[in-house]
Here is the input.
Amino acid sequence: MGELQTHHMLPLEGQEMIAGLLLLSAAVGIVATGVAFTLDVPTWAALLAYPVISCMSLALLASMWSARASVAPAHDRLQPNATTG
Here is the structure.
């Protein structure tokens, strides 16, 4: 009853990729907020930009990762050329 169930966990490489996506989206949001403060945007708008930009960049990065993962195995379906001897 108190056993740790690990069959629902992602493989280690998947966890690292998700952590990388989260960190990258947070960094993009921080840069966008810094740019907003530098350009003298009102404080409320600059602070509102952080979660909006972070969520949009996370969605974009996740969709790019998903598209890359679905395209990558396509080369496995190619059949090798038959050699004639």
